[in-house]
Amino acid sequence: MHLIRNLADASRIANPHIRSLVDLRFQQLGTFSDGLLLVVEVGDSVEELEAVSGAAVLYDPFEDVPFGHPYFSPSFDYIEAHYANGRIYCFEAHADTSDDGLGVTLFIPAEEGIPPGLLALCQTYANAAVDTD
């Protein structure tokens, strides 16, 4: 996974669409120094994401059930699907992880090699973002 703290970190994101989206978030919010912004990479595991982010990814701690259970609800405050050239290129998922408004935002590429359960969660719960190609 790629931890983003500043624009220099963002400039090293290989996917140009995700890099552009992260740049936009910096323009909108100014900084991510108090929260976490992570770009998921091929080969990352859900367990690693949970350990670094502090957020439950495929588990609902309130209902004590895994993704796929009828009572499951994601721990993310929102999940958005971002499109380019007519197809989803990534999902953006944000979870508040503390009472002071700090949180973690994950950018999850919609590509092979990303944990299938994570992609399934995103596809199930994502709202379409308004993007420009």
Short description:
The protein is an alpha/beta fold. The chain contains 4 helices and 8 strands.
Account of the 3D structure:
The protein has helices spanning 7-10, 16-29, 46-53, 116-125; strands at residues 2-4, 36-39, 59-60, 65-66, 78-84, 87-96, 103-109, 127-128. By secondary structure, the protein is α/β, with parallel strands linked by helices. It has one domain (2-128). The chain is globular, with a radius of gyration of 14 Å. The protein starts with a strand and ends in a 5-residue tail after the last strand. The mean pLDDT is 89.
Proportion of residues in β-strands: 25-35%
Order of helices and strands: EHHEHEEEEEHE
Radius of gyration from the alpha-carbon trace, in angstroms: 14 Å
Ends distance: 25 Å
| Strand line-up of the largest beta sheet | 1-2-7-6-5-8
For this entry, what is the oligomeric state of its chains?
Answer: single chain
- Main pleated-sheet profile: 6 strands, mixed
Q: Look at the helices and sheets and give the structural class.
A: alpha/beta
Q: Overall 3D geometry?
A: globular
